[in-house]
Automatic annotation (TrEMBL):
<dbReference type="InterPro" id="IPR045312">
    <property type="entry name" value="PCBER-like"/>
</dbReference>
<dbReference type="InterPro" id="IPR051609">
    <property type="entry name" value="NmrA/Isoflavone_reductase-like"/>
</dbReference>
<dbReference type="InterPro" id="IPR008030">
    <property type="entry name" value="NmrA-like"/>
</dbReference>
<dbReference type="InterPro" id="IPR036291">
    <property type="entry name" value="NAD(P)-bd_dom_sf"/>
</dbReference>
<protein>
    <recommendedName>
        <fullName>NmrA-like domain-containing protein</fullName>
    </recommendedName>
</protein>
<keyword id="KW-0521">NADP</keyword>
<keyword id="KW-0560">Oxidoreductase</keyword>
<dbReference type="Pfam" id="PF05368">
    <property type="entry name" value="NmrA"/>
</dbReference>
<dbReference type="GO" id="GO:0016491">
    <property type="term" value="F:oxidoreductase activity"/>
</dbReference>
<feature type="domain" description="NmrA-like">
    <location>
        <begin position="7"/>
        <end position="255"/>
    </location>
</feature>
Length: 321
């Protein structure tokens, strides 16, 4: 039997925060994929018409429909062999039906769920109980119980450096950099390493995953652009700005207390605080990541220098797709 090759790829959630990077990277891949299709809603087709027109010029096909409609999704799956989901946190459980229909599809062979971000199964002690992980854990449990034919791969990237550098409003002490004030907010002493991925590298890792199906089938791939300490990030900011920065350090115990308070209040910022606490506790670290499995070397990926340079020149909000 000939080895599997992704030939017709369907992306859902491909115009969202991380989905834009994935879709754009698929369209720029070398060698090019045979057919890339985006499934999107009527509302998004209207509000993001200019982006979709640009992507169509780059070779993208667009299907407009309802992601919760079995009829629409089944029709979109026709002839598709690979499905990539980039739905946001609010749409994670929609994937259960997408996965059910993929298993029933005669053509779908491979599914990449929306896993980009924090490793939800990093350890057996705390990970199963972290509140932000629960929906993704439900998706993984469904896959273990119900998918027998379709192969599944999780692309686990850790925190997006592009976003980590921005403090959360009214919760700055949980981490981030304020360029105007030269303030660097750090959890703890800032000497614990964190594994980061830039948002463009997320797209690069997804493309590399599709280019290495046999190596990727059935795995939760842990991929990273670079692994550094917050203190090293501060030093890079100081180097690139030519200025001394104020390192404002908050004990991890204080972050845990803030986290508990926000969850108790039902504050939506609680999720972000929990994730930043997990990263500060070492929830992004491994003996070895899977970059080499995908044939990606450090020189193929963004560096800390590149990440900081981008943050100082407009950040991810200035990206053009």
């Amino acid at each position: 039997m000939a080895p599997f090759v992704s030939s017709k790829i369907l992306v859902v959630g491909g115009t969202g925060t991380i989905g834009q990077y994935i879709t754009a990277s698929l369209l720029r891949a070398k060698p090019a994929f045979q057919h890339v299709v985006l499934f999107t809603s009527p509302g998004t087709a209207n509000t993001k018409a200019a982006l979709l027109d640009k992507w169509r010029a780059d070779g993208l096909s667009v299907i407009v429909g309802d992601l919760t409609s079995e009829v629409d999704v089944t029709a979109a799956y026709e002839g598709v062999d690979t499905v990539i989901s980039a739905v946001g946190r609010g749409g994670l459980l929609v994937q259960l039906e997408l996965l059910r229909l993929a298993e029933a599809s005669p053509s779908v062979k491979w599914f990449l769920p929306s896993e980009y971000g924090t490793d939800i199964e990093h350890n057996t002690d705390k990970s199963p109980h972290e509140r932000p992980h629960q929906l993704k854990l439900k998706v993984r449990n469904y896959i273990r119980e119900h998918l027998k034919r379709v192969k599944v791969t999780y692309v686990v990237t850790g925190p997006y450096f592009d976003m980590w550098v921005y403090p959360m409003p009214d919760a700055e002490k949980a981490g981030g950099f304020v360029v105007e004030e030269k303030d660097a907010y750090i959890i703890g002493e800032g000497d614990g390493k964190v594994g980061f991925c830039t948002m463009w590298d997320v797209g690069k890792f997804v493309v590399a995953t599709l280019q290495h199906p046999e190596e990727s089938f059935g795995k939760a791939l842990k991929v990273q652009s670079f692994v550094v300490t917050p203190n090293e990030v501060v030093a890079e900011y100081e180097k690139q700005t030519g200025s001394k920065w104020n390192a404002i350090k908050t004990p991890l115990e204080d972050i845990r207390a803030l986290e508990a308070k926000l969850w108790e209040e039902g504050n939506p910022r609680a999720t972000g605080i929990t994730l930043r606490r997990i990263w500060a506790e070492g929830g992004t670290l491994y003996v070895k990541n899977d970059n080499e499995l995908l044939a990606l070397r450090p020189e193929d990926l963004d560096s800390l220098e590149v990440g900081v340079k981008k943050a100082l020149s407009g950040g991810y909000k200035a990206d053009v797709f």
